[in-house]
Design a protein that fits this description.
The structure holds two protein chains of two kinds. By secondary structure, chain A is mainly alpha-helical. Chain A has seven helices and no strands. The chains are: A mainly alpha, B alpha+beta.
């Protein structure tokens, strides 16, 4: 029969271990948010739109963080990172009008990727490509809402085709990340 | 919470056949959209400039005329250049400048969109002008 003091000590230990774990997760989330922000800035330095003049075309580097968080952490944490990234990115970039696009695209991508991830037989590549396509669709939907006309829809087919390449790219990089970085 | 897929091994780290299905679905969606949006051919090429939902200018691009350059008064002023068969935005003060990068647009169904300005230039072929009988031979 352990004494009262021993039991308290054990409880204390367990509690501090749990706290450690949650602090660790929180720190991971914060680092990932910062990484996503930095990546979206870095993305602006690689102007893909000069090669393919398509508005809204991006490499989707910050989507990489979303996929990583989805696989390593959880849907909830991936969602929080996404929201923090969108709001902070809009504030840092100084264009709040861009917020509607990044939020719609990001949320749609996250939801679809979570759904695809639950399907068996689908690898990271499929999930990532689906996410990239959903992101572009969300952006175009937001553009249609802002413009109040279906004009932007004309950009969707070429964007979808490009999303196969960009999605495969982010999927590949995330795969390398998940292999190299050991989980908890 | 936790890492539900981790125990399943590394099967999600390798491309599978089902990924091909996702790719095929995306390609199919793109092709279907492209077919659905295909413009009706023929007719005279017209460009309609819409600012915030209201038509502010129209260009007839089918008739040979002097190239026209017009500044549009909108939140970020931009310069539209129209000539026979094509139109573009050659200068814009909007952030990003996607509309300028789009370059010349010459096909019916083509679009130039400047999102910061909420401005759309859409090209259409006026239906009916060449749909009639061209000639009747006896």
């Amino acid at each position: 029969m352990p004494s009262q003091g021993e039991r308290d000590g054990k409880k204390e230990k367990r509690w501090s271990a749990m706290k450690n774990r949650s602090v660790r997760r929180l720190t991971t989330c914060a680092v990932l948010t910062a990484l996503a922000l930095a990546l979206s800035v870095a993305e602006g330095l690689v102007p893909v739109t000069i090669l393919f003049p398509l508005p809204g075309l991006r490499l989707g580097l910050s989507n990489l963080v979303t996929i990583y968080a989805l696989y390593r952490l959880s849907f909830r944490e991936a969602l929080l990172i996404l929201l923090a990234r969108c709001f902070l990115g809009a504030l840092l970039g100084g264009n709040l009008s861009g917020l509607a696009f990044s939020i719609t695209g990001g949320l749609l991508a996250l939801l679809l990727m979570e759904a695809l991830r639950r399907l068996r037989g689908l690898s990271l590549f499929g999930v990532s490509i689906g996410g990239a396509a959903a992101h572009n669709t969300g952006q175009i939907l937001a553009a249609m809402a802002v413009l109040g006309s279906p004009a932007a829809l004309a950009y969707l087919p070429p964007l979808l085709l490009c999303s196969i390449a960009t999605g495969a790219f982010t999927g590949f990089v995330t795969m390398l990340l998940l292999r190299r970085i050991p989980g908890e | 919470m936790g890492i539900p897929v981790k125990s399943r091994g590394a099967d999600w780290l390798r491309p599978t056949l089902w990924d091909g299905v996702v790719i095929a679905a995306v390609v199919a969606a793109a092709v279907l959209l492209l077919l659905a949006l295909r413009p009706a051919g023929g007719g005279d090429l017209r460009a309609v400039v819409t600012l915030d939902g209201a038509v502010i200018a129209q260009y007839d691009l089918s008739s040979p005329s002097q190239p026209a350059r017009t500044w549009v008064d909108c939140p970020y002023p931009l310069l539209i250049e129209a000539e026979q068969g094509r139109i573009r935005i050659c200068e814009s003060e909007c952030p990003g400048g996607d509309c300028v990068h789009t370059g010349w647009v010459s096909r019916a169904g083509g679009q130039i969109v400047c999102l910061p300005n909420r401005l759309v230039i859409s090209l259409s072929a006026a239906a009916g002008t060449q749909d009639g009988v061209d000639a009747v031979t006896g």
